[in-house]
Amino acid sequence: MSRSFGLVVETDKCLQLYNSLGLSSVASHFCVASSIAKIQEALTYAKAKQLDIMPLGAGSNVVFASDLRCLAVCISILGIKESGSNGGTPNSVDVRFAAGENWDRAVRHCLSQGWYGLENLARIPGNVGASVIQNIGAYGVEISDRFISLSAVKIDTGEIIILNKDQCRFSYRESAFKQLLKDKFIITHVTLRLSRIPIINIDYPALTHYFADHQGEISSEMVYEAVSTIRQSKLPDPDVLPNVGSFFKNPVLSASTLAKIDSKDGRTKGQIPRFEQPQGCFKVPAGWLIEQLGLKGLRYGAAGIHAQQALVLVNYQNGKKDDCARDILALARYIQEKVLATFFIQLEIEPRIYGSV
Ligand SMILES: Cc1cc2nc3c(=O)[nH]c(=O)nc-3n(C[C@H](O)[C@H](O)[C@H](O)COP(=O)(O)OP(=O)(O)OC[C@H]3O[C@@H](n4cnc5c(N)ncnc54)[C@H](O)[C@@H]3O)c2cc1C
Fold first, then answer.
1. Which ligand 1 atom lies nearest to the CA of residue 185?
2. Is 258 in the pocket of ligand 1 (CB under 6 A)?
């Protein structure tokens, strides 16, 4: 452990408690940054030691494939408050969230304040900072639907900047932070525009079904509870069975690509489920493709495909020093090859992979 301007940097830190897959990779350097000043100190430290920076939230969307030579910076800035502006709409409220806030705690806090619009995103693991990296989404809502701006520290200069929605280039599980702006910023705060009037969105089929027999009014709190219940019944709890949620993105294909796929193979012709998206594209459920191959429940070494959720890969050896990352990634490759060979669709891995096996 060493100290630089009050920043505590640990060396050879096991990351097992810092990722929801429970992988026991070691970061050569590790620190916790609870303020913008601490982040800037960490950047100075990393520059002096010629280390790459790896920002970390709750580690629920990362795969550590090996030990890492880097400075892992656990972002733990806290605070949620009204930002003062509301875009001139009296029923709107702009709320500024610090990046280290737990996402679900933030959603519940908003509900308790009468700030509505995040209920459908209940119980998504992780922290606020990373929520914009992959534009988290669930049950018919994406964070980009509420996004106004974010503050970030530039990794190369330490300068603080503000980015608006256009600059973040959000799309399904995507943002500029995975493309053009990858590894260039540490997000410190996110501002979302919420509503003082409940926004009830139960159009997503699972939610429509949940409320099908319900008589009377539906409140935002009821939507929060419904989403929580549905999620708990469908997804394995990472504390019990380590995982990163969906391991693959649902492919978004153009109508012409889908038509070509339909015509290539008699078995799949017209059968692949598809959900219309903007700009004439279609989202295909990756879990359905994997399920059709009979792979649910398949185990490979320490890794496995969850028995109920074909999109979720799990680590069966949490807590042991093992080669689980290798097994997880080998299993992912196997699934990708099988899906490509059968359906002519390339599945893309959703979590960020650090290091190599
Ligand atoms: C059981 C389960 C269910 C899930 N369900 C969903 C779901 O329904 N919808 C969905 O969209 N996702 C889902 N996820 C994925 C995950 O919850 C989200 O991606 C979440 O936003 C990750 O947050 P995190 O803090 O854990 O990020 P981390 O895993 O710590 O980091 C993810 C990436 O963001 C970067 N990062 C983190 N913080 C910052 C920062 N402050 N500045 C810059 N870069 C940063 C990291 O370097 C890394 O590249 C699920 C995951 C699990 C385990």
1. 43
2. no
pLDDT tens, per residue, the chain with 357 residues: 666 567 999 999 999 999 999 999 999 999 999 999 999 999 999 999 999 999 999 999 999 999 999 999 999 999 999 987 777 788 999 999 999 999 999 999 999 999 999 999 999 999 999 999 999 999 999 999 999 999 999 999 999 999 999 999 999 999 999 999 999 999 999 999 999 999 999 999 999 999 999 999 999 999 999 999 999 999 999 999 999 999 999 999 988 888 888 887 666 667 889 988 888 899 999 999 999 999 999 999 999 999 999 999 999 986 555 579 999 999 999 999 999 999 999 999 999 999 988
Among protein residues, the one with the nearest Cα to ligand 1's atom 8 is 138
Do 71 and 84 fall into the same domain?
no
Verify whether ligand 1 is closer than 6 Å to residue 309 (CB atom). Answer: no
Cα–ligand 1 centroid distance for 256 (angstroms): 32
Write out the residue range of the structural domain in which residue 60 sits. 2-75
Nearest to 134 by CA among 292, 285, 245, 300: 245
- In this structure, are 286 and 324 located in the same domain? yes
The half-sphere exposure of 349 on its side-chain side, counting CA atoms within 13 A, is 19
Asked whether residue 248 falls in the same domain as residue 350, the answer is yes
Domain boundary among 75, 99, 119: 75
Last residue of a domain, one of 48, 75, 102: 75
H/E stretch holding 33 reads: strand 26-33
Query: Which of 96, 146, 173, 274 is flagged as catalytic?
Result: 173
Nearest to 31 by CA among 83, 86, 1, 74: 74
Which residues are within 8 A (CB) of 309 and not within 5 positions of it... i.e. 6 or more apart? Answer: 234, 235, 236, 287
